[in-house]
Amino acid sequence: MTELTTQKDASLTAIAAANTLDALEVQRVAALGKKGWVSLALKTLGQMSPDERKGAAPAIQSARAEVAGAINTKKAELDAAALEAQLASEAIDLTLPAPELAKGSVHPVSQVMDELAEIFADLGFAVATGPEIEDDWHNFTALNMNESHPARAMHDTFYFPDAAADGGKMLLRTHTSPVQIRSMKEQGAPIRIIAPGRVYRSDSDATHTPMFHQVEGLVIDKDIHLGHLKWTLETFFKAFFEREDIVLRLRPSYFPFTEPSVEFDVGYANEGDRRVVGGHGDDAGHDWMELGGSGMVNSRVLEFAGVDPNEYQGFAFGLGIDRIAMLKYGMNDLRAFFDGDPRWLAHYGFSPFDQPTLSAGVGSRASGGGA
Ligand code: PHE
To answer: Band of the pLDDT at 255, cuts 50, 70, 90?
Structure first.
């Protein structure tokens, strides 16, 4: 029995001294493992007579219980200490100021306007602007739409209640075309400008909002013809969508301020629920999508703007910025553009460092939540 007591005391001392779970496990195996001293002591019971066994068994059982209890207690102690250490190392000090997060992003419309300016600047176009609160003369009359012109009715114009100084009506411009007039009056010819900006029409559904964005293009010089217009549009769209397989279709149309007038379509295919431009609209699985209007500037418009139509001629075009932004970056509801939802902006917005440049590529990727 004294041997048992010595072994038990040695085990208890070693268990108390164990300061890692591994060291404790070594002690458990040495005592309670298959070849541990407790197990060996239990085996000796088998060779004893029943009487001897009755005398020896309780001491072995109680030694085993004592050692097992000590191991459990020590294990709980070591586990608690480990958890404590982990909590201490992972603690967050809530009194510290929050880390600096990227705030805000560049709206896709602004990004696309920068892309437009970059591509057209390379083709020799300057950026021109005009007022969004416009007068009747610049928005309609000078664009060859007099008071009784039926095309005025198609513009769903927002008028202001008060008249302008000259007695004409004031309105929210319905297109960027009045900037053609203002630029020609200011600069004369030759001229090469684009005019991106907001326009307004009383219209609202999934593809129309009362405010949207257009870009106007105007080239006036000597010997300008429709071929220049087609080349310019095609060159622009190839650079903008960054694909060589852009196919444009020009369709005869009518605008009071151009003669002849053409609407231009681009070939596209549906890929899943996304429209992807490129390819020929008459090929299998492809279709045409209208992108804007254009034509040779009507000689009456040149006269209104003070440019001599016998000396100069040129082309103009207008296209929807929101629509080409949706096509390029894969949004499908125009209204979300103007909801101001921070989650939408974080997803589709651009980092201010995402500057479109021709050398680095104007096809910057949506930054996706400031990532
Ligand atoms: N201003 C026209 C529109 O808003 C587009 C256009 C611009 C057409 C220039 C021809 C030339 O529909």
So the answer is: very high
> What is the rounded CA–CA span in Å between residue 247 and residue 264?
10
Closest CA to 256 of 158, 147, 130: 147
Q: Atom 9, ligand 1: which residue's CA is nearest?
A: 317
Q: Is the pTM of this model over 0.90?
A: no
Which two tokens mark 30?
């040495």
The three-class DSSP label of residue 218 is strand
Helix or strand run (H / E) with residue 115? helix 108-122
Q: How many CB atoms lie within 10 A of CB 129?
A: 13
Residue nearest to ligand 1 atom 10, measured at CA: 294
Encode pLDDT of 22-48 as tens digits: 999 999 999 999 999 998 888 888 888
Ligand 1 contacts CB of residue 108 (under 6 A): no
332 contacts 207 by C-beta, under 8 angstroms:
no
Cis upstream peptide for 309 (omega within 30°):
no
How far away, in angstroms, is 290 Cα from ligand 1 center?
A: 12
pLDDT value at residue 369? 37
**Which burial class, exposed, middle or buried, applies to 244 when counting CB atoms under 10 A from its CB (0-12, 13-18, 19+)?**
exposed
Cβ(237) to ligand 1 under 6 A?
A: no
Amino acid at 187: Q
pLDDT band at 364 (very low <50, low <70, confident <90, very high): low
Predicted confidence at residue 367, as pLDDT, reads 42
| Pairwise CA distance, residues 337 & 329, whole Å | 12
What pLDDT is attached to residue 371? 32
